[in-house]
């Protein structure tokens, strides 16, 4: 075999070896699923498999969402080797991806799909189980509609902030605000419009508050804003700013502008009574003079009905492990005072602020 032939053989061998190496380095195709983050069957995982999947209210739909806001055949999902394609099937209320109406869209990891009043998150990763459980953990602290914190998180955070403000004599304020005539908006424009307003409201305010502030949806059209290191004067100025932000741009749904105003009630930590440290109890234990369960009208109270049996196991779940009963009671008082002033503001008219 001459030198030229040997060179060609060596080249072929090198080429073959190189191709085999590339095949071996290929990553396996990622799994995909949809997780319900808002609406019925919260937290349910729907695995996506090759082929076509119909989303709709019909019992024949592979992904059934039995709600009046969903059409019988609402949307189609097709899983192919190149990706996942979502298409609207001429539904009455439309199909949305990341709050934008779509006719057809290829999905990307993390996209939010809205079908009727249900919101699903698309996950596509090589470790789908880890991504799913991470999303479930996120749902324990985040409101799926507004992407703000939820009632559970803000209450736990408020206990910690009351403890810190009391120990170090620092200011702390809470702003409670509510969409005026929210029930009427739902009746007149529909619940989908009401959901859209809350989502827009959460998005606007989340971009304008400080990093250390805690913005949460606490139920219906009600929100709470916990502001460490802010006294009453600063809280009033912040509340006025919130009202201006709401008035800057009209709210809308399906090209219909909807007038929206807020009412705000403000409470500060120096306005409430906090028992002396000698009355502290061990975390998770109640003092003898604790009022009977059910006596507080606050829906954040541990005895209030909850979809999660452990939602208010605050002491066991506290990150610091130093939460005591007196700060738990003080946070209840602060929320109640904020709600009382919110109710007074709403009784005085729309777009009012009481501190």
Summed up:
This protein is of the alpha+beta class. Helix content is 34%, strand content 25%. Residues 11-28 and 278-323 have low confidence and may be disordered.
Largest sheet: 6 strands, antiparallel
- The DSSP helix count reads 8
Identify the strand order in the major beta sheet: 2-1-11-10-7-8
Order of helices and strands: HEEEEEEEEEEEHHEHHEEHEEEHHE
- The percentage helix is 25-40%
Principal-axis shape equals: globular
**Taking all residues together, what is the mean pLDDT?**
82
C-alpha termini separation: 97 Å
Strand content: 15-25%
Structural class of the helices, strands and pairings?
Answer: alpha+beta
- Rg, alpha carbons: 26 Å
Poorly predicted spans: 11-28, 278-323
Number of strands: 18
Overview of this protein structure:
There is one protein chain. This protein is α+β, with helices and mostly antiparallel strands. It has eight helices and 18 strands. Strand 7 and strand 8 form a beta hairpin. Helix 3 (151-167) crosses helix 8 (325-347) and helix 4 packs across helix 5 (191-206). Residues 11-28 and 278-323 have low confidence and may be disordered.
Keywords:
alpha+beta; six-stranded antiparallel sheet
Summarize the helices and strands and which ones pair or pack.
Layout: H1 3-25, E1 31-38, E2 45-47, E3 51-56, E4 63-64, E5 75-80, E6 83-88, E7 95-97, E8 100-102, E9 104-106, E10 112-115, E11 118-125, H2 128-139, H3 151-167, E12 172-179, H4 182-189, H5 191-206, E13 214-219, E14 222-228, H6 232-248, E15 251-253, E16 256-258, E17 262-268, H7 314-317, H8 325-347, E18 353-354
Parallel strand pairs: 3-4, 17-18
Antiparallel strand pairs: 1-2, 1-11, 3-5, 5-6, 6-9, 7-8, 7-10, 10-11, 12-14, 12-17, 13-14, 15-16
